[in-house]
Amino acid sequence: MRVGLITGGTSGIGLAFARALARDGASLVLVARDRERLDAVAADLGATYGVAVETMVADLADRADQARVAERLRSGDIDTLVNNAGFSLKTPLVDGDEALADAAYEVMGRAPRVLSSAAASVMRERGEGWIITVTSVSALTRQDSYSALKAYALALTEVLALELTNTGVHVTAVLPGWTRTEFHARGGSGRKGVPDAMWLDADRVATAALADARAGRVLSVPSRRYKAAAAALGLLPNAAVRAVSRRIKGKSRTPGEGAVS
């Protein structure tokens, strides 16, 4: 029996992953902070796709809640983990909001590490599983605190993929660009200056990411335009990446992903 656990699974890319997995017949475990919304989304997905949907109310900025979700992953029935929970982070490194920065690290840095480790230990024993972490194409830049956290999540995913080579457990980092979700509205991220052609559809992002994960690809970059951007950034020396980052930062907001958990 296939079961997918998705953090931040009630909106945005997280919900898109839930729909994609449910269409494929997988049961779901949705993790988010809002009980009312969790129940509503679970009822809708269950009725629409005829799959079992379990919910967990958890704030991944809280280490005790991280531990509860990790324990659920160790129960043995989860074959797909999607680390999606996140939120916009605009505070500067110097004289910024330390509490917000710490919360962002817990949700987008520590939680993916803890949950991936818990899932991997069981999946490796079973000889099969998929761990997907939604990062951002901004992880390839050096724009701000958000891109720094996403760069950490990307590196973490690549290290885990290497560690789990030939175990049957596949690890994939998803690097979307600007995606039409509630993420920007909740975080107050502006859309001015971003051409329509640069916006992605959340369902297409999730579908492509799952296909890449099933194919064993470590990196999933949705759309040809973002693949080209990622390839170009990968070829640039660090000084040039910093220069490009300054230009991007001056023109628009950082592209984000997912939903507030």
General description of the model:
The radius of gyration is 17 Å and the shape is globular. The C terminus is likely disordered. The chain has a seven-stranded parallel β-sheet, with helices on both faces. Helix 5 links the parallel strand 5 and strand 6. With 261 residues, it is α/β, with parallel strands linked by helices. The protein has nine helices and seven strands. 44% of the residues are buried.
Largest sheet composition: 7 strands, parallel
The number of strands is 7
Radius of gyration: 17 Å
Q: Pairing-aware structural class of the strands and helices?
A: alpha/beta
Helix-strand layout with pairing:
Layout: E1 3-7, H1 12-23, E2 27-32, H2 35-49, E3 53-57, H3 63-73, E4 80-83, H4 98-126, E5 129-134, H5 145-163, E6 169-174, H6 183-187, H7 202-214, E7 219-220, H8 224-235, H9 238-251
Parallel strand pairs: 1-2, 1-4, 2-3, 4-5, 5-6, 6-7
